[in-house]
């Protein structure tokens, strides 16, 4: 029985590493496309910087996750497990950066930007200082950060094309729905399913930001 469990765990980790390894490769292409589009549209340094931050946040999340699942050395795997969870904060705040600074803009946009990165900084610090603790708090922070758009929902909706709006909403719902599998990832295949929800959310948000924000 133990051999079967170990075999399953190995297969599961390989699948997890492969799925987010693909995500990492796609995130490199995403970063390039985002920056190129921002430069081509000629809206200035803010657009290029926001696009670069978002693209980089995709690389951080998928790179950290891939390394965590691919590594077998116990200590290295433990370190990248922390990075894996901390990178969720980076991706959420990174995804909000172009939406806050470009789509919403003005003082309200900067406030949203500050809130996102402020919560992310605190969350990341807690992950490294109190590793393995306050998991419910972390999960709550992820969800709160993900839906902070409600603070200026009317401005966001007014300043983005309807297609872009629904892509952002659909992406948020994909991430949030995947949380069910994230919290139950001790069940077979659930962590892999969580990965698919994350990739779906990322793809939807990428197209929204590429075509309707930057």
TrEMBL record:
Instruction: Give the membrane topology.
Output: Multi-pass membrane protein
Q: Which Pfam families match?
A: HlyIII
Does the keyword Metal-binding feature in the UniProt annotation? no
One cellular component term (GO) for this entry is: endomembrane system
Keywords recorded for this protein, A-Z: Membrane, Transmembrane, Transmembrane helix
Q: Which InterPro entries match?
A: AdipoR/HlyIII-related, Hy-lIII
Give its localization: Endomembrane system
Keyword Membrane among UniProt keywords? yes
Molecular function terms in GO for this entry? pore-forming activity
| TM stretches of this protein | 21-40, 46-70, 82-104, 136-157, 163-182, 194-213
What name goes with this protein? Hemolysin III
From what organism does this protein derive? hydrothermal vent metagenome
The taxonomic lineage of its organism, from the top, reads: unclassified sequences, metagenomes, ecological metagenomes
């Amino acid at each position: 029985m133990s051999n079967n469990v170990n075999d399953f765990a190995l297969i599961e980790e390989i699948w997890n590493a492969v799925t987010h390894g693909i995500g990492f490769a796609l995130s490199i292409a995403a970063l390039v496309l985002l920056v190129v589009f921002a430069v081509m549209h000629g809206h200035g340094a803010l657009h290029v910087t926001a696009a670069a931050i978002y693209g980089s946040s995709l690389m951080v999340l998928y790179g950290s996750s891939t390394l965590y699942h691919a590594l077998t050395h116990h200590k290295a795997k433990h370190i990248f497990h922390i990075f894996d969870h901390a990178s969720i904060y980076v991706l959420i705040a990174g995804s909000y950066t172009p939406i806050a600074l470009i789509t919403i803009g003005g003082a309200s946009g900067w406030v949203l930007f500050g809130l996102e990165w402020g919560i992310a900084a605190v969350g990341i610090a807690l992950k490294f200082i109190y590793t393995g603790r306050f998991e419910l708090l972390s999960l709550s922070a992820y969800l709160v950060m993900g839906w902070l758009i409600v603070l200026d929902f009317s401005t966001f909706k007014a300043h983005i094309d309807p297609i872009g709006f629904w892509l952002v909403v659909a992406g948020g719902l994909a991430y949030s729905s995947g949380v069910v599998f994230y919290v139950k990832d001790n069940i077979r295949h659930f962590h892999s399913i969580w990965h698919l929800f994350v990739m779906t959310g990322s793809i939807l948000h990428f197209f929204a930001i590429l075509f309707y924000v930057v």
